[in-house]
Amino acid sequence: MKLRILFAILGFVLAVVGVMAVTLYARDADQRALEDQRPIDVLVLARDAPAGTPADQLSQYVEVKALPQAAVAVGAATTLDGLGGLVTSVDLVTGEQLLATRMVSPDALDVPGRVDVPAGLQEVTVPLSPERVVGGALAPGDTVGVVITVGDKTHMRLQNVLITTLQGLGSPVEGDASGVTPLPGGSVFVTFAVNGPDAELIVSAAQSATIWLTKQPEGTDPSGIRVITPAEILP
Q1: Which of 28, 172, 201, 224 is most buried, by CB atoms within 10 Å?
Q2: Three-state DSSP class for 39?
Q3: Residue 7 vs residue 227, higher pLDDT
Q4: Extents of the domains making up the chain
Q5: Sign, CA torsion 100/106/112/115
Q6: 165 vs 139: CA distance, rounded Å
Q7: CA distance 192 to 8
Q8: Which residues, in sequence order, are CB contacts of 227 under 8 Å at separation 6+?
Q9: SS3 call for 169
Q10: Residue 208: its H or E element
Q11: Could you report the per-residue pLDDT of 105-148, keeping only the tens digit for each?
């Protein structure tokens, strides 16, 4: 009898502890939810701002907007203070939050050898390892083929794609008379000028597939390409 009473008391205590634990957890969850909804003032683009816009001129492009904390992007600027001397690194569009990472020094936009983007096209950049960019033997103004591999299938999906700039290429070693440029030590950032659908294709491939580039000088024969599978390698 005493043992049954003891077990009953123990069960009651455990039930009380369980209820208290659930109550505290729910209270913490409610508190976290309230914190996520707490409004924070951030700078949001009221109209499009072109790349290269100085920070001291951004006041005419941005407005202060209160957003829930959960909706505030990492690095979102709450004020223009501290951005003096910087410029926008890319075109900013209406409605997006002003990110500190989009602000760079003016020198960062002055990329040697950069070529203009043809009218109607837009730029997209992907990082590629040296062997995927013809060993670094590319330059702004070159046109390339974009070979994409998904699973066991490979295809030259795009051709005659204009490169507007490359960053991360090696430079000839000072005092080396060979004129040979060493391979890049890390990723090469390749910027293409493409239309919207091709930009989507390149970004998707960079995220979920692999990309190799071929150098396509004027007169390159674009015919004969096909989807390659393992059966094509050893027919």
Answers
A1: 201
A2: strand
A3: 227
A4: 39-108, 122-233
A5: positive
A6: 7
A7: 73
A8: 153, 154, 155
A9: coil
A10: helix 196-208
A11: 877 666 667 888 999 999 998 989 889 999 888 999 999 999 99
Helix/strand/coil (H/E/C) assignment for every residue in 73-131:
CCCECCCCCCCCCCEECCCECCCCECEHHHEECHHHHCCCCCCCCCCCCEEEEEEECHH
Secondary element (H or E) of residue 163: strand 153-167
Count CB neighbours of 212 within 10 A.
18
Burial of 235 (0-12, 13-18, 19+ CB in 10 A): exposed
pLDDT digits (tens, 9 = 90+) for 142-182: 999 999 999 999 999 999 999 998 887 655 444 444 444 45
- Which amino acid type is present at position 151? G
**Residue that has been written with the tokens 């700078």 in this structure:** 43
Considering the domain 39-108, what is its CATH architecture? Alpha-Beta Complex (3.90)
Instruction: Indicate the average pLDDT of the chain.
Output: 82
Question: What one-letter code names the amino acid at 106?
Answer: P
Token pair recorded at residue 119: 């009218």
Backbone angles phi, psi at 3, to 5 degrees: -65, -40
What pTM, to 2 d.p., does this model score? 0.53
d(CA 199, CA 197): 5
Q: Which residue has the higher pLDDT, 22 or 209?
A: 209
Query: Positive or negative CA dihedral for 25, 29, 32, 34?
Result: negative
